[in-house]
Known about the structure:
alpha+beta, ATP Synthase, domain 1, 2 domains, 3-stranded antiparallel beta sheet, 8 strands
Amino acid sequence: xxxxxxxxxxxxxxxxxxxxxAHHAPLMSELAPGEVLTTLADGRTxxxxxxxxxxxxxxxHDGHTTILADSAERVDEIDxxxxxxxxxxxxxxxxxxxxGSDKQAEARRAAQYAETxxxxxxxx
Length: 124
């Protein structure tokens, strides 16, 4: 979705936000549902992309950052009505699952992703 020189990437790590500057030390991390922000080399913040989770890697030799996401969409392309419906469905699924079950963990991630999509699309 973005293949440009950037000075900074902010991504939702599984244990908190990750801030990756250009030529960062090698790194691999699991990503949680959330918003990825990038700042282009010219200094302007550009890309706002919502992801449902995945992995981030900073390559050891060239410092390039690669994000492999389960799904991703640009904030300006999110259909807020559909995002709100997805959020309602995820909350319903969460209410119907047993505590500690795999289904509950799946429902929690779906709700987190849907909440991010709604919040990001309204903030345009």
